[in-house]
C-alpha cells in the first residue's frame, strides 16, 4: 500500500500530465509526478537506458531484473520480467534469475553480468576479476551502460519499496 497518495494529475504541470498520459498513468510515474522536474528527468534517463545504448537488451534486462530481486522490489521484478521476455530473455533464464550466476541456464557472459550485478548491488563495486571478466565481453560503452542500468534500477527499486508503490491491477 502506498505510503503517500499518488499525485493528482489535475494539479500538475502540462508536461507532467503529458508524460503521465504517455506512460499509461502507471503507479510508479504517478508517485514520481509529485516532483515534476525530477519526474521528467527520471523518464529521460530511463528511456536512454532502455532504448539508446549499445548494451545488449537481454543482458540489460537480466541485470535489471536481478537488481530488482536483490533490492526486494516485487514491482520492479514483475515489470522487468515482462520487459525481458519482450527483449528475448527465455522463461528458463527469467526463472533462474532468483538463483543468479550459479544457474546452469545462463551463458558465460550472462553469468559474468550477473556476478557484476550482484557485486555492484551488494558491495558497491565489482572485484577486479569480475570487472575484467565483463570487460572481455563488452566495449567500454556497454560496460558504462550496464553499470548505469544497475545503478538506476537500484534507485528505482528502493524508491518503489520506500514509497510502497502498489502493483498495477490492470
Give structural notes.
- The protein is elongated and about 50 Å long.
- The two termini are 16 Å apart.
- Helix 4 runs parallel beside helix 7.
- The chain has nine helices and no strands.
- The chain folds into two domains: 42 residues, no CATH class; 107 residues, AhpD-like (Up-down Bundle).
- It has 170 residues and is mainly alpha-helical.
- Helix content is 66%, strand content 0%.
Radius of gyration: 16 Å
Give the N-to-C terminal Cα separation.
16 Å
- Strand content bin: under 5%
The first-level CATH class of the largest domain is given as Mainly Alpha
The amount of helix comes to 55-70%
* Low-confidence runs of at least 5 consecutive residues: none
What is the CATH topology assignment of the largest domain? AhpD-like
Tally the helices: what do you get?
9
Structural class: mainly alpha
Could you tell me the mean pLDDT?
A: 96
Following the backbone from N to C, one meets helices and strands in this order, namely HHHHHHHHH
Main sheet? none
CATH architecture of the largest domain: Up-down Bundle
CATH superfamily of the largest domain: AhpD-like
Number of domains: 2
Instruction: Identify the overall geometry.
Output: elongated
Total beta strand runs: 0
Amino acid at each position: 500500500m502506498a505510503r503517500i497518495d499518488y499525485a493528482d494529475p489535475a494539479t500538475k504541470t502540462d508536461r507532467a500530465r503529458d508524460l503521465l498520459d504517455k506512460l499509461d498513468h502507471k503507479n510508479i510515474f504517478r508517485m514520481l509526478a509529485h516532483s515534476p522536474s525530477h519526474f521528467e528527468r527520471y523518464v529521460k534517463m530511463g528511456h536512454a537506458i532502455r532504448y539508446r545504448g549499445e548494451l545488449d537488451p537481454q543482458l540489460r534486462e537480466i541485470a535489471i531484473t536481478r537488481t530488482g530481486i536483490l533490492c526486494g522490489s516485487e514491482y520492479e521484478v514483475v515489470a522487468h520480467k515482462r520487459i525481458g521476455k519482450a527483449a528475448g530473455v527465455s522463461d528458463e533464464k527469467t526463472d533462474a534469475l532468483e538463483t543468479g550466476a550459479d544457474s546452469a541456464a545462463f551463458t558465460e557472459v550472462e553469468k559474468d553480468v550477473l556476478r557484476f550485478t550482484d557485486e555492484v548491488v551488494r558491495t558497491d563495486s565489482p572485484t577486479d576479476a569480475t570487472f575484467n571478466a565483463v570487460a572481455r565481453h563488452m566495449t567500454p560503452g556497454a560496460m558504462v551502460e550496464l553499470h548505469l542500468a544497475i545503478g538506476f534500477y537500484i534507485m528505482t527499486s528502493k524508491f518503489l519499496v520506500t514509497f510502497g508503490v502498489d502493483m498495477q491491477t490492470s
